[in-house]
User: Fold Bifunctional 3-deoxy-7-phosphoheptulonate synthase/chorismate mutase from Paenibacillus haidiansis.
Amino acid sequence: MSQPLEELREKLDGINQQLLVLLNERAEVVRRIGEIKEKQGVPKFDPVREREMLEELAKRNPGPFKNAEVKHIFKEIFKASLNLQEEDHKRQLLVSRKKQPDNTVIDVNGTLIGGAAQVMIAGPCSVESYEQLRAVASALKDAGIKIMRGGAFKPRTSPYDFQGLGEEGLKMLKEVADEFGLSIISEIVHPGHIALAEKYIDIIQIGARNMQNFELLKAAGEASIPVLLKRGIAATLEEFIHAAEYIVVGGNSNVMLIERGIRTYEKWTRNTLDISAVPLLKQETHLPVLVDVSHSTGRKDILLPCAKAALAAGADGVMVEVHPEPQVALSDAAQQIDIPQFQTLWDGIKRSGLFTE
Ligand code: PEP
Ligand code: MN
Assistant:
């Protein structure tokens, strides 16, 4: 009595083996198709072709499986194949950790970003005057902070708002940075600004509004200095990573990513700090990942817990806006902290034990 059951089980094992071989053979064919599509730049998922294949299978289905079941099984096979193609695509991205398992560590005048230590970047939203810059630079120097931020080209929502001092602002940044021994990060908004950036500053910032300004990304790919790329206001992590890929494939491998909050329906913060972006970007890419606590929250009162959350999640650094007199700041007055508030924040971060200098 048990003999036929054993036989049938053996037969089933044999069929499983055959299915396994066929499924993997199929996967190899799908992979080859994926490579051709990759070269042609056409999408991997082709819903029309998928429907045709499912209809053809239903037509030829001898049973006993019902057509709906056959379609369901094959849809799962199609989905697994598509995932395989996407995995292959990720492996091909230069920014992918699958391509380069080791962290990219960026050397900015001796300060390493993306290594064992974290970095603090602080400074005003906009460059306004020498006095303003010197007040911040002096406080940063006293705090042992090496990188100062300040915007000279300001992408503003309204054309009537302060647009920044332009090249004059970059010159001021350089002068003050040299005086206090700091490195400078500043935003540029146009491919034609790369040469200016190379002349005056140490790190190019590409702002949230320009994350998908592809001509700017390509130009940054040709720059000789590192780039801090901000996450777009409504960008997915995949879009963010692909934006970084533009810069790296252009020849500049010194790219850092910064989460600066995304737009949601929440009104108590200016944007929503997506803390999950930090471990995901660290996992998917080998690039340094930072968090801008000022633009993500738009507030002054929750900077310390947000900075600690960022560091606990694995961020390589934190950026914050500091202004000697935030109440009269020409941009982002509501979120910039003054120098004593910055010192309190900095003490809190250091005391948290999450920041390695
Ligand atoms: C900034 O850093 O001053 C800025 C404009 O940020 P974002 O591009 O993230 O809005
Ligand atoms: Mn700002």
Notes: Residues 221 and 249 are 7 Å apart (CA to CA). Strands lie at 106-108, 111-113, 119-123, 147-149, 183-187, 203-206, 227-230, 255-259, 289-292, 317-321. The radius of gyration is 26 Å. The pocket of manganese (II) ion (ligand 2) is lined by residues 125, 295, 321, 331-332 (CB under 6 Å).
